[in-house]
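Quick one:
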Amino acid sequence: MTIKPEYPYNGKRYLGNTNEMKVHDLENENVNCQIDEIKYEHIKMYDYHFQAKDNGFVDCDYCF
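Output:
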Protein backbone atom coordinates (compact mmCIF):
# COMPACT_ATOMS: atom_id res chain seq x y z
CA MET A 1 0.00 0.00 0.00
CA THR A 2 1.15 3.47 -0.66
CA ILE A 3 0.19 6.38 1.52
CA LYS A 4 -3.44 7.28 0.78
CA PRO A 5 -4.95 10.73 1.27
CA GLU A 6 -8.47 9.52 2.11
CA TYR A 7 -9.99 8.57 5.46
CA PRO A 8 -8.91 6.79 7.61
CA TYR A 9 -5.31 7.05 6.33
CA ASN A 10 -5.32 10.83 5.94
CA GLY A 11 -2.00 10.90 4.09
CA LYS A 12 -0.05 9.58 7.07
CA ARG A 13 2.64 6.90 6.88
CA TYR A 14 2.27 4.90 10.10
CA LEU A 15 -0.84 2.91 10.91
CA GLY A 16 -1.46 1.78 14.46
CA ASN A 17 -3.81 -1.17 14.88
CA THR A 18 -5.38 -0.57 18.30
CA ASN A 19 -6.80 -4.11 18.34
CA GLU A 20 -3.31 -5.68 18.31
CA MET A 21 -1.30 -2.61 19.39
CA LYS A 22 1.01 -3.01 16.38
CA VAL A 23 2.26 -0.23 14.15
CA HIS A 24 2.68 -0.70 10.38
CA ASP A 25 4.81 1.27 7.91
CA LEU A 26 2.56 1.83 4.89
CA GLU A 27 5.58 2.58 2.68
CA ASN A 28 6.97 -0.89 3.44
CA GLU A 29 3.73 -2.90 3.66
CA ASN A 30 3.95 -6.67 3.35
CA VAL A 31 1.02 -8.89 2.32
CA ASN A 32 1.22 -10.49 5.78
CA CYS A 33 0.31 -7.14 7.38
CA GLN A 34 -3.27 -7.55 6.12
CA ILE A 35 -3.88 -3.80 6.30
CA ASP A 36 -7.15 -4.08 4.36
CA GLU A 37 -8.52 -6.42 7.05
CA ILE A 38 -8.12 -3.87 9.89
CA LYS A 39 -11.45 -2.30 10.85
CA TYR A 40 -11.55 1.49 10.62
CA GLU A 41 -12.36 1.80 14.32
CA HIS A 42 -9.04 0.08 15.12
CA ILE A 43 -6.92 2.43 12.98
CA LYS A 44 -4.92 5.27 14.50
CA MET A 45 -2.68 7.09 12.06
CA TYR A 46 0.65 8.80 12.78
CA ASP A 47 3.03 11.03 10.85
CA TYR A 48 6.06 9.71 12.72
CA HIS A 49 7.08 6.26 13.95
CA PHE A 50 8.11 7.54 17.39
CA GLN A 51 4.57 8.85 17.99
CA ALA A 52 3.12 5.35 17.68
CA LYS A 53 5.88 3.90 19.85
CA ASP A 54 5.26 6.58 22.50
CA ASN A 55 1.61 5.49 22.52
CA GLY A 56 2.50 1.88 23.30
CA PHE A 57 2.49 0.31 19.84
CA VAL A 58 5.05 -2.36 18.95
CA ASP A 59 6.47 -2.81 15.45
CA CYS A 60 4.88 -5.21 13.01
CA ASP A 61 7.18 -8.17 12.31
CA TYR A 62 6.62 -7.91 8.56
CA CYS A 63 6.97 -4.24 7.60
CA PHE A 64 9.63 -3.21 10.12
